[in-house]
Amino acid sequence: MTSSTGRLTALLYGLLCYLVFQVTLVYAIGFVGNFWSVFGLHATWLHGMDHGRSASLGEALVVDAALLGLFAVQHSVMARGWFKRSWTRIIPKEAERSTYTLLSSVALIALFAFWEPMGGVVWSVGGPLATLLVAVSLAGWLVAALSTFMIDHFALFGLRQVTDAYRGRTAAEGHFVTPAFYRLVRHPLYVGFIVAFWATPVMTVGHLVFAAATTGYILVAIQLEERDLIAQFGDTYRDYRRRVGMLVPLGRRNGS
């Protein structure tokens, strides 16, 4: 896509994909924490994971597992190098990451729209402890957001690629860096998500299924991601793995 019209189209497309993702992310915070009802916001499309039509446990498990599986497959397969190489034969290379961001948003929107609540309370706390858990959850979201800015937020979500293409710049080669949080753990973005998903004053069965499934997915995704990082950065990343813990800020031993 070398024409000025094509570059402008890619730029506008990338901006749209980025905006859709940011709106989806804000909605996700309210969805996971059931904050929309807490703030007195009510609409058929504005709800939390514990609100909505009732279904049998079996039906809810099947539907929710399918929605989580859809997101996991989309998110993992499209991030792999072999898929990107094939995919960019169809779409412009500079739009690849924006398209990934957009389809990730679509998968999340489907999850929010069709999620089936599951009744039953695993734990429920009130008072100062409830306030603390909400604060911890929000802190997890903040850690996740800050982690993206500590590396290259705009490249992560496709904006840098379409902007560079619009300006006629060659994309800079990626360098391995470990700023701030990344000196403590290798995957602070995932740490933030795990904390955000598990820290809740009311843990329903549905929320537990969501938290457990997403945590399991994160553990698998880390293995796939680190395999790609080793292929890209070789011994530099292997040494980083030896020195820095995966999710816990402790020194690693024996490559565990």
Strand-helix topology:
Blueprint: H1 4-33, H2 35-38, H3 57-77, H4 81-87, H5 96-114, E1 121-124, H6 127-150, H7 153-156, H8 159-166, H9 188-198, E2 202-204, H10 205-233, H11 235-243
Helix pairs in contact: 1-5, 1-8, 3-5, 3-10, 6-9, 9-10, 10-11
Mean pLDDT, as a whole number?
Answer: 88
Radius of gyration: 20 Å
Please write the string of helix (H) and strand (E) elements: HHHHHEHHHHEHH
Q: Which word captures the global form?
A: globular
Strand content: under 5%
Number of domains: 1
Strand order of the largest sheet: 1-2
Intertermini distance: 44 Å
Structural features, described:
This protein is an all-alpha fold and 256 residues long. The chain has one domain (4-243). It is built from eleven helices and two strands, in the order αααααβααααβαα.
Keywords for this entry:
single chain; 256 residues; mainly alpha; two-stranded antiparallel ribbon; 2 strands; 65% helix
Q: In summary, what is this structure?
A:
By secondary structure, this protein is mostly helical. It has helices spanning 4-33, 35-38, 57-77, 81-87, 96-114, 127-150, 153-156, 159-166, 188-198, 205-233, 235-243; strands at 121-124, 202-204. The chain has a two-stranded antiparallel sheet with strand order 1-2.
